[in-house]
Amino acid sequence: MEKIIKSYSDQEFHKKIGSLIKRYSKNQKDIREEVNRLVDFKNHHRLLDIGCGYGWFIELLPVRLDLIMGIDCNGENEQEFKKICEKKADEVIFKRLMLPAHIDMPSGYFDLIVSAYSLYFFPDALSEIKRLISPEGLFIVITHSSSMLEEGEKFFNFDNLRKVIERFSAENGYDILKDYFSKITHVDYPNELVFTEEDDSALVQYIEFKKAFIEKDVDPETVKEKMLEELKIKKILTFNKNDRIFLVRP
């Protein structure tokens, strides 16, 4: 888990992979744009972004807020996070903290809390999230399907990857959230990554991106070799990239 978390401190690599995922996605709508369609951000003023990384979610925030606070265990993300958030809020705070942990802010202080592709790292933080959200607040969770990379499981056993993703996934997220919150809705974001035989270098980069997730199960170089072989034979490979957006209220 430590290597997975640490991999999120390489901002430039993550931005590069973000561009790659967008390019090879069948669904060309940015999932953040889908969130913007679903949420009226004008009704919110203080945002807490947990597992914030370098500020990926904040980049496309359509409004300016009074406060944005980011929590991440990688201190390397602080400078870039603040740079992005200063364009979106009057006050910006970054705290380096390994969750789950107590967050030193008043109860009910935030009317908007976001966890974008991070809650599976710290599902035990939900009780603290419940404490921090205001009675009229909104908790936005973006997460993967547990079927992520299922195509590779025809050839390899990804038990450790499954253990991480299934801590909070599209499929079990509702059952986990209902123990803490009363109003839960969701919107699915169907997608798949499509690589043709001309895209072999992009496929290699994508597998490299997942290296920290899969290396406890299988040597990533072995995965690359097998997937490139399959791409050469089949001329096209697709990978599950289905996600889900949870909209949660106290």
Produce the secondary structure layout.
Elements: H1 2-7, H2 11-24, H3 31-38, E1 46-50, E2 65-72, H4 78-85, E3 89-96, E4 110-116, H5 126-132, E5 133-144, H6 159-165, H7 173-177, E6 183-189, E7 192-196, H8 200-209, H9 211-214, H10 220-234, E8 236-240, E9 243-249
Parallel strand pairs: 1-2, 1-4, 2-3, 4-5
Antiparallel strand pairs: 5-9, 6-9, 7-8
Keywords:
single chain; 250 residues; alpha/beta; Rossmann fold; seven-stranded mixed beta sheet; 34% helix
What's the short version?
By secondary structure, the protein is of the alpha/beta class. It is built from ten helices and nine strands. The chain has a domain of 174 residues: Vaccinia Virus protein VP39 (Rossmann fold, 3-Layer(aba) Sandwich).
Structural class: alpha/beta
Please tell me what the overall shape is: globular
Q: Could you give a short account of the major beta sheet? A: 7 strands, mixed
Order of helices and strands: HHHEEHEEHEHHEEHHHEE
What is the percentage of strand-forming residues? 25-35%
Name of the CATH homologous superfamily of the domain at 28-192 and 241-249: Vaccinia Virus protein VP39
CATH class of the domain at 28-192 and 241-249: Alpha Beta
Helix content: 25-40%
CATH topology-level name of the domain at 28-192 and 241-249: Rossmann fold
CATH architecture of the domain at 28-192 and 241-249: 3-Layer(aba) Sandwich
Number of helices: 10
Instruction: Please state the average pLDDT score.
Output: 93
Number of E-state strands? 9
Compute the CA-based radius of gyration.
18 Å
User: In which order are the strands of the major sheet placed?
Assistant: 3-2-1-4-5-9-6
